[in-house]
Design brief:
The protein has a domain of about 210 residues: MetI-like fold, CATH 1.10.3720. About 75% of the residues lie in helices and about 0% in strands. The protein starts with a helix and ends in a 7-residue tail after the last helix. By secondary structure, the chain is mostly helical. The protein is globular and about 85 Å long.
Length: about 325
Amino acid sequence: MRYLVRRLLTLVLTLLLVSLLTFGAFNVIPGDPVSLILGTEARADRVAVLRSHLGLDMRPGQRYLSWLSGFARGDFGTSIKYSTPVRGLIAARLPVTLFLALLSLVLTAAVSIPLGVYCARKHGSIQDRAIGATMMAVLSMPNFFLGVVFVWLFGLVLKLFTPGGYVDYQADFPRFIGYILFPALAIALPNSAVVVKFLRGSAIGELRSDYVRTARAKGASEDRVLYGHVLKNAIIPVIALFGMIVAEIFSGSIIIEQVFSIPGVGRLLISSITSRDFPLVETLVMYIALIVVLANLAVDIAIQFIDPRIKVR
């Protein structure tokens, strides 16, 4: 119980720090939303009225505290660019990004765990070196470049999907999944390369342990040793790694959504930064930070279930 209370306090402090850093960065970058809305040659009286309407005439500290008090009450303000409540904008886009992130995470696990175990089993072999070289090549490619390659290969050459032909998940869910499969794969492959390398090293270390030699001496098959004993212990640090991969997936989705024209949170965030839409930027960053922190908390709890010897304090 005390652990959960401490983690919740850490979550609140983390979100406060993220909001402060976002607010500070937003006030450092050049650009004025009033100039973007009215133009650079607008009359001074119109500029003053709009600045007052948007709350930009307040001191930076007052603006931040005003936004923070509204956020604590569940009022995220009104978007400067879209002139609509921020809550509605995010509610329409967040499910798309969450579907993309979840599919990317599933693909990362589905690709990396079998390959990592296989490489550990065949370590030092030609197959192990070939997979390692392939994973290193994938890891060296930015996910936006993989996205462009996938658009060309799977979209234009193989015609497995129509580039730019996004289908809303509420209109046709199977076609929606078919469309986001390729951007999810572009996000998942570089992360899979990291997990394969990490799991391979962890599993090789476990294969040299005394309990493995004991199991083999008792006549256990290699599959039994590998999947019944080694994987259970080798997977623990990899699960912790997945907590960090969640943050990587969300950062990767921001760019991938641009490449595949997916109307998710990433595209909305880029658009809001370009238009200096502070209420929307701040709330989007807070949402992403909250999801990442909760994912890491879930990882810590999952590790305890897998290995009861690990106790959190």
